[in-house]
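Please check this protein record:
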Amino acid sequence: MAAEFTTDAFDTDVLGAKTPVLVDFWATWCGPCRQIAPVIDELAVKYEGRVSIGKVNVEEQPELAQRYGINAIPTLLLFKDGEIVERFQGVPPRSKLESVLDNA
């Protein structure tokens, strides 16, 4: 199951993480967000220990959405060593996400 990232712990949980971190920026009212949610949860289980995977609810954490220029959801950001190395808007194919996570 994907973690929930908050503004308070984002710097520690994401930017300071020892492993790559995939962050799903989403909202409850967003249809495509609900479409990709099960895939995100499945990937969180599959990559446990190798890649941290979590979500940011843009309505509850607007500071993070603004900080990373999230202007469409879902937006997925892959962080490595505190830097964004991949960015996806919309619902990317699962195979594309797996390929990126395998290479991370």
User: Anything to note?
Assistant: The two ends are 20 Å apart (CA to CA). The chain has one domain: 3-94. Helices lie at 7-15, 31-46, 62-67, 94-103.
